[in-house]
């Protein structure tokens, strides 16, 4: 708005100046002529004097107006100058702003770097403590290494010394422990025997009593020191430890038991010697005990229950759950099963469920290779994850939730049984036959 007014005033001033100057150019020569005012001015063509008078009359006012215009123009000019200066200032500011822009970038970068440095510093501090820990570990490992090297050196030295075998193995041999006893062996201990069909002798623990009875021991449990969860090959070859004092747990091995029990002309008695956690002992004997060849999965057979105060658990047991209980828990005629070889009569795998190798049916009433429980009575909770009765069981003495403390399975030729210990059955039939 101001600019518009200034422009219009400027325009007016220019016009007036032009008009005045052009008019004065004609009137100046006759300024000294006295002119008579003509009230009729305007009705006629004005004379030179009339025009001059008229100008004289209105000049002061025009001067004032011109002066006003001049002031206004000066003001506008001043404002314009101010605006221009401001413009220059803004421009310069803008330029200087632009010039300072890179500095801001550097500042930002600097801040970022500072943050990074702080972050790295924190990281370094935390890593430093980790490094200290690792250094400690390294030192401990170094010390351990030194100790191990010392131990290795000591062992190496000991290995160079002559080997001293502290296990006494008796010199007498035979086809079984009874023959060993018949040959004059008087003490229990480790002997090499070679059954008729065995390709080579193998070590057994012979239990020889004062009457000259020689029991060949095929299984021993006494403290749970040996894990009886083994596979087919381990049960075939045998596992555990044979000790000259007889105080160790083992399974002689199915192949050896097979070779031992199937010798021609020697009918064997299998005796189960059992001890519970009250220290009470009982036994159960089976006549004509045999274990078949591996081709028949080491099948168990016997002619009959020969006697004993522990009861005939091998014949199965009526648990009162199903009429077929007894039939499906009997063991005579069962093949051997291990967790990895299922030869049982059960849809599932008894040996796998119970973690043992045994002549499983569906599954058992006798189970002397079961899990060792330290206090006798155990529960389905204890038998997790399967929850089945998997202890060392002889149900005709203690029920299936009672695990026996000690067991020994041993064989002897049946003709020795009359002097090996009084039995309820078969004593008369087989007694007095003499040594074989
Ligand atoms: Ca099965």
From TrEMBL:
The keyword Secreted applies. This is Fibrinogen gamma chain. Heterohexamer; disulfide linked. Contains 2 sets of 3 non-identical chains (alpha, beta and gamma). The 2 heterotrimers are in head to head conformation with the N-termini in a small central domain. Keywords: Blood coagulation, Calcium, Coiled coil, Disulfide bond, Glycoprotein, Hemostasis, Metal-binding, Secreted, Signal. One of its GO terms (molecular function) is metal ion binding. One of its GO terms (biological process) is protein polymerization. It comes from the Eukaryota. The keyword Heme does not apply.
């Amino acid at each position: 708005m101001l600019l518009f007014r200034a422009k219009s005033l400027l325009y007016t001033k220019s016009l007036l100046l032009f008009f005045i100057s052009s008019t004065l150019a004609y009137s100046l020569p006759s300024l000294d002529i006295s002119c008579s005012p003509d009230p009729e001015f305007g009705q006629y063509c004005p004379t030179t004097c009339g025009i001059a008078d008229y100008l004289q009359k209105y000049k002061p006012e025009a001067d004032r107006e011109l002066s006003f215009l001049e002031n206004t123009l000066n003001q506008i000019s001043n404002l314009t100058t101010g605006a221009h200066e401001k413009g220059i200032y803004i421009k310069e500011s803008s330029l200087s702003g632009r010039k300072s822009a890179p500095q801001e970038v550097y500042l930002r970068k600097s801040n970022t770097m500072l943050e990074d440095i702080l972050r790295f510093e924190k990281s370094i501090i935390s890593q430093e403590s980790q490094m200290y820990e690792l250094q400690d570990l390294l030192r401990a490992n170094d010390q351990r290494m030194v100790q191990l090297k010392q131990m290795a050196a000591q062992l190496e030295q000991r290995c160079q010394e002559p080997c001293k075998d502290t296990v006494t193995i008796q010199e007498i041999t035979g086809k079984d422990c009874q023959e060993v006893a018949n040959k004059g062996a008087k003490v229990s201990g480790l002997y090499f025997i070679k059954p008729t069909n065995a390709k080579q002798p193998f070590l057994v623990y012979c239990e020889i009593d004062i009457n000259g009875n020689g029991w060949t021991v095929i299984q021993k449990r006494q403290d749970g020191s040996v894990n009886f969860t083994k596979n087919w090959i381990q049960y075939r070859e045998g596992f555990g430890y044979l000790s000259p004092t007889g105080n160790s747990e083992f399974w002689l091995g199915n192949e050896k038991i097979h070779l031992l029990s199937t010798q021609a002309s020697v009918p064997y008695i299998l005796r189960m010697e059992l001890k519970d956690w009250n220290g009470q002992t009982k036994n159960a004997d089976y006549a004509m005990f045999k274990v078949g060849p591996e081709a028949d999965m080491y099948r168990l057979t016997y002619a009959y229950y020969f006697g004993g105060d522990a009861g005939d658990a091998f014949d199965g047991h009526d648990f009162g759950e199903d009429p077929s209980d007894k039939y499906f828990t009997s063991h005579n005629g069962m093949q051997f099963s291990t967790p990895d070889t299922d030869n049982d009569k059960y849809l599932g795998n008894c040996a796998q469920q119970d973690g043992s190798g045994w002549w499983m049916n569906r599954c058992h009433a006798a189970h002397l290779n079961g899990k060792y429980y330290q206090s006798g009575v155990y529960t389905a909770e204890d038998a997790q994850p399967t929850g089945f009765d998997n202890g060392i069981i002889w149900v005709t003495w203690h029920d299936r939730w009672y695990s026996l403390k000690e067991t020994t399975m041993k064989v002897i030729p049946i003709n020795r049984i009359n002097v090996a210990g009084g039995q309820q059955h078969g004593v008369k039939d087989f007694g007095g036959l003499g040594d074989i």
